[in-house]
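Quick look at the format.
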Amino acid sequence: MGRPDPSRARPSGWGALVLPAVCPGCGRADEVVCPGCRDRLLRGPLRRRVLADGTPVVASAGWRGPARGLVAAAKEQGRADVGAVLALALARSAASAGFDVARGSRRLLLVAPPARVGAVLRRADRPTDRLAAECARLLRAAGADVVATGHAVPRLVHMRRVRDQAGLNRAERAANVEGAFGLRRPLVPVARGRRHDVLVVDDVLTTGATLLEATRALQAAGLRVVGAAVVASA
């Protein structure tokens, strides 16, 4: 018997009567993540973009469709069932983005952009870091040598305050995060004695400003960024 899939679990008991589950991707009742939304996120063609600095990005799905609702449910409602599906989608993107290049024996490090302090306090969580960690776990289970932020991996941090990117246009987003990220190395050196590559990971790519700044900060610290992977791309 295979492992249970948390994305297909159904509510039961009084909780189902009081708060019936709704698929956040399409609003379908009596589902957690419905099969249709799951397939659109995990089985459609991969989307590929190139950032202004030449960094290749792979997305598992487009932002228009179920991805928007699923990402919001995982980040704002803490829906673990939805997070499990997003991690599968990110692992799908990362497997392509991180292993399309001839890496040899290099270890792949997954590094997420930093969350704003206000968002961390409001959610009492770092959902993107959690998404990256689960993505790394899935890739390791498939036999890849991968670690993520939170596992002796350098963490990107804000060097100055930034605004919420929501509602900003392309130029405002770029100005908002330009030069805003820096690297805080862990106490234990990363991959001591090992060659390693970095893959920037995030939930969504819109204008690319956040991924560009993350890539700049990592490269400024002497790390080799091979690309980026996201759940969905606008």
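Next, a different chain entirely:
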Amino acid sequence: MKKKRILVVAPHPDDETLGAGGTIAKLSDQGHKVYVLVVSGHLPPLYRRKDYEVTVKEAKRAFAVLGVADSRFLEIPATMVAREPVHVVNGKIGGVIQDIEPQIVLCPFPDRHIDHRAVFESVMVATRPVAAGRGIELLAAYEALSETHWNAPYIEPNFVPSWTVDITNQMKRKLDAVRCYKSQIPAFPGARSVEAVNALATFRGTQAGFAFGEAFHVIRMTG
């Protein structure tokens, strides 16, 4: 099987692990090269710089657990992605896609978090089937615990999975990576707790006939 380049776009550190951590580990195990682009983070003016640095360290530990080949951080303040000029955000994400030339791109579903929606919009522009985008064979959106499931049903987009990845053999590593985010992951019954992550993976997996799964909505796929 030809090895591919995969880009996972995360609005914030931890979204990539919550939404696609098992898939990242599985693709890495198969010899594919997985990159993670983190667009935003806990930066001033709402947070302290040292808060952001803590999450970056946590992210890099999680990436090591999952087998991420390389990661990049754009350092846009959290909740303020939509305040950046649209062409600037599009250009930054598009520049990474032009540089990596991925065959697979996984992005956030446009859910309750304003940063998730803004990043989704920019990814949709940056992955158009022109230039480097012509080489993208699969573009899919992942769900993020809490934010995706807090959308107003039928008023806002509903996450309806059309592809489920069997992560049964990678589930332990996904949970280990989630635990790396000590500053971000709450105790049970928090919506992003380790127990909640395990429960969602169990639900998605058993929907598709295996123990643990990660669900995606396929946006575009070429043969």
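Helices lie at 15-29, 49-66, 86-100, 114-126, 171-180, 194-208.

See the schema section for token definitions.
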